[in-house]
Design goal:
- The protein is an alpha/beta fold.
- The chain folds into 2 domains: 264 residues, no CATH class; 181 residues.
- It has 14 helices and 7 strands.
- The strands form 2 sheets. Strands 1-3-4-2 form a 4-stranded mixed sheet. The protein has a 3-stranded mixed sheet with strand order 5-7-6.
- Helix 4 crosses helix 5, helix 9 runs parallel beside helix 11 and helix 13 crosses helix 14.
């Protein structure tokens, strides 16, 4: 069986004339304790409009919640590259000559042509792409009526900055003589460039902008939602085609490379054999579930039984871990799964108080049972920003705790939680197509859902050190996926 969610918005940060970025508004408050972005009611820093950075046309700035922030971000991105480009590529930087344009219905002020050049670009053309850099006239344009308001509403204004930092990365590639590079690596290098700029802001390198840990985490969640719709749904596009963006699983890794290694790290993307480490899972157009398993099958097959999350994921976990523990002569009894309600009554397990049960999945060694909040799982599995593999990730992490108990692992605290992330990755590696697990096989988007959940559940600040930072959790999960159980034990 396959797993995937039809996400609330599929955004593609593309170089024109790719289809671009598209978005629809996400449902709010449907994810229980899982965030879709760190949008809060806390006061945000005001950023005055910087004149001359964005061509707003005749209507001018109309989004006070992000217009000033956006002009500050674009100005800082350009300032960052004016210095960094020379350091990395040993040649002078040429400023963006065509400008940056806000597109909206009825705009009369012209926007340079790209898709149908030499004719001016229309709002409809830009809205179809959403946001893009155009090499032809060296400009950027974005949908200021659909895409950006949706991103800000769902994920916060930092996600908007990440989108445009990625787009600006294509302008960097054009100036570096790498525009001819094709395929996923070109897009992921732009993700890396976005990560490098984000680190510059987060580390205090900007004179005008600030990012705290929450902003970076929100940007990472945004990266997982910014993926080309065609990459998720069209099984005909391989990784080496001209315009895929790759899975969010790999895109976050690219972003992290830039965040931690700067633009010099990004420069090596085309020469380090990175393609061999990418994972490509095509969308199965013949999947009767449309890639999205229900939490509980309302009409189970009388012969084959239920086709749902609560049946297939535990069975798939059993198939993998029972065989592996037996092969290694480890005594292991598979845990049972039992649901409870968010309002209680709650299970009884030593060391777990009532406050820990709502919106959670917990392994109890007292009775070898994985207890899961049914109300939370219903909301999470149907949330358009998460989905079935988000529940699968939580089920697997609790199951991984049962494995650590069987292995008599002595780690505790953050390291133990990260160990569960890694073991979950090892299990996920066994169900990546082509899979030998007769119970479950991943579909396109599942890795994105798992990583999105890991990030959403990460420590709120990098120095909290309770369950791991967003980068630490993604690293641990990715280590398990790419290296299997041996990598988790290393």
């Amino acid at each position: 069986m396959s797993l995937v969610v039809l996400i609330a918005f599929a955004a593609a940060a593309c170089s024109a004339a790719d289809p671009g970025v598209t978005a629809t508004r996400a449902r709010q408050g449907s994810g229980g304790g899982i965030i879709t972005g760190d949008t809060t009611n806390e006061p945000q820093k005001d950023y005055p409009i910087i004149d001359g950075v964005i061509d707003f046309g005749e209507r001018g700035p109309t989004h006070p919640e992000y217009d000033g922030f956006l002009t500050a971000a674009i100005a800082d991105i350009q300032s960052f590259w004016a210095t960094s480009f020379t350091e990395v590529y040993a040649t002078s930087w040429t400023p963006l000559s065509g400008g940056v344009y806000a597109a909206y219905p009825g705009r009369e002020a012209p926007i340079p042509g790209c898709i149908n050049a030499p004719a001016d670009s229309t709002y409809e053309e830009i809205a179809q792409g959403g946001a893009f850099y155009c090499k032809l006239n060296d400009f950027m344009a974005y949908d200021d009526d659909g895409l950006l308001p949706s991103l800000v509403d769902s994920l916060g204004r930092e996600s908007v900055a990440i989108v445009l930092a990625h787009e600006f990365g294509h302008a960097v590639q054009q100036r570096a003589g790498e525009w001819g590079q094709s395929g996923v690596l070109k897009e992921q290098q732009a993700d890396c460039f976005a990560g490098a700029w984000s680190a510059h802001v987060a580390s205090g390198g900007s004179d005008t902008m600030t990012f705290d840990d929450k902003a970076v985490r929100s940007g990472l969640v945004g990266m997982l939602q910014i993926g080309k719709l065609g990459d998720r749904t069209d099984g005909t596009k391989p990784l080496d085609s001209s315009d895929p963006h790759g899975t969010g699983f790999d895109r976050v890794s690219a972003f992290q490379d830039g965040f931690e290694g700067g633009p010099q790290r990004c420069k090596a993307f085309f020469t380090e054999g990175r393609m061999n480490k990418l994972i490509n899972i095509a969308f199965d157009l013949n999947d009767p579930n449309a890639g999205n398993l229900p939490l509980i099958d309302p009409n189970p097959d009388p012969t084959n039984g239920p086709s749902d999350i609560v049946t297939i994921i535990p069975a798939g976990l059993d198939v993998f871990w029972v065989a592996l523990t037996a092969d290694n002569s480890i005594t292991f009894t598979p845990p049972t799964f039992s649901d409870y309600r968010s309002q209680g009554p709650f299970p009884t397990c030593s060391g777990i108080d009532d406050a820990a049960w709502p919106n959670n999945v917990i392994y109890c060694p007292d009775d070898n049972t994985i207890y899961w909040d049914k109300d939370f799982a219903v909301k999470l599995s149907s949330d358009l920003n998460f989905g079935d593999m988000s529940v699968g990730y939580l089920f697997s992490n609790a199951y991984s705790e049962a494995i650590q108990v069987a292995l008599k692992t002595t780690t505790s605290g953050e390291n133990r939680v990260l160990g569960n992330d890694c073991l979950t990755g090892a299990w996920v590696a066994s169900i990546v197509p082509p899979s030998t697990n007769e119970k479950i096989t991943l579909s396109a988007g599942d890795l994105d859902e798992a990583v999105s959940t890991a990030i959403a559940l990460s420590d709120p600040t990098a120095d909290t050190n309770k369950v791991g930072s967003a980068f630490e959790k993604v690293d641990a999960f990715r280590t398990g996926v790419l290296g299997g159980l041996a990598a988790c034990q290393g």
